Amino acid sequence: MKIQMCKTSVKCDLYKCKNMAKFSITTKGFLKHEFVFCEDCMKKMFECFSKEMVPKSINAPYKRLFKGEK
Ligand SMILES: [Zn+2]
Questions:
Q1: 33 CA to middle of ligand 1, Å?
Q2: From ligand 1's centre to the CA of 14, what distance in Å?
């Protein structure tokens, strides 16, 4: 999966969003179409993802570091 700048002028795929898409995600078969979205939606998604991901991604490297130092 890869995030790229959206080359074609299409509208953002997110529900009720009327912005033009700025980025696209190529999924190589995971989705039927490329998922395209605008900068605003990317920020919203990132906030949403980071709420889920941050507690794990902060703890995991530290644990590994401490184990490595022993
Ligand atoms: Zn959008």
A1: 16
A2: 5
Residue 4: strand pairing partners: 24
| Contact yes or no for 13/37 (Cβ under 8 A) | yes
Asked whether the CA dihedral 33, 51, 54, 47 is positive or negative, the reply is positive
* More confident site: 58 or 12: 12
As a three-state string, the secondary structure of 2-60 is EEEECCCCCECCCCCCCCECCEEEECCCCCCCCEEECHHHHHHHHHHHHHHHHHHHHHH
Rounded distance from Cα 57 to ligand 1 centre (Å): 26
Q: Across residues 8-27, what is the average pLDDT?
A: 91
